[in-house]
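Why do we bother with holo predictions? Because pocket geometry can differ from the apo form. Keep that in mind while you read this record for PMV.
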Amino acid sequence: MSRAATARAHPNIALAKYWGKAPGAGNAPAVPSLSVTLAGLSTTTSVRFDPALGADALVLNGREAGGRELARASELLDRVRARAGLACPALVESQNDFPTASGLASSASGFAALALAAWHAAGLGEAPAEVSDLARRSSASAARSVYGGFVELPAGVAGRDEPLPARPLAPAGHLPLAVLVAVTAEGPKATGSTSGMNETERTSPYYEAWVRHAGALFREIREALLAGDLPRLGEAAEASALAMHASALAARPGLLYWTGATVEALARVRALRAAGVGVWATIDAGPHVKALCAPGDAERVASGLAGAPGVLRVLRASPGPGAGLVGAAGPAPAP
Ligand code: PMV
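The structure, written out:
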């Protein structure tokens, strides 16, 4: 008998960045992070555990995937199988409704949707914290996409592989916010976030300073968010992104995720700010710039960013919901 479930999850953008892993197994972050889950864009993933399958299979956006992509999905499925006492392979079918090169991390929504679908297909019931912990083991930012609105993920403790789920901090409506993504390049980024943060940790003299500083930035961002203070939140979020990139730039060789268009878009955000608009920038492990502003300023910020040299297009997003199940699951799981 096969068992199936389908889940949908949305990307998130970190306002307080996660960059660096706590020493030891389990993929726990070295620093606490705080993000906003985005509405509109989504990944939908179906998982079917089926004894008739020879092995796990993964179909990503209609294309059969293998190699590292399949291995990462299988690692997550293995954890679910161990937890549920299942032995059979699974077919995973996943679809993004936003382009992979959109500047929004598909790993966060991808692993959040996969974790939730696999958990329910295995009949493990309602357990968001466990699903978040499961997603975190594959991609730490994915732990945050399990929840909607504003979400925090604590740092792990070195050498302790223990449950570490994200936690919802405030609902999507808590702070009126627009996120404008200035897309500056097509195609996948040159250095993925895991290898980027590992290289930073291994070779950057600024890594320790980043880890020390990131906790204070996180607390400032958390406080500003809870107080509904967008200017304070924006200023500290921009500082978090720049400090993260400073640590990566000082790696050997330096990790330069930015292009000329990244700098142009950043300069445009600062020019708008100098002109009195409340707008701040954040940048992940890629060349795209994400601007944060009040919804009433979104139009002006979007056209400012669209006019920056090298910006290809501007996507608009806002705080949105957490991951959820779609439609009906397969036959009721055996007790
Ligand atoms: O979760 P990962 O391994 O894709 O790493 C995400 C790292 C950043 O996007 C750069 C920062 C963050 O907190 O999302």
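The mean pLDDT is 95.
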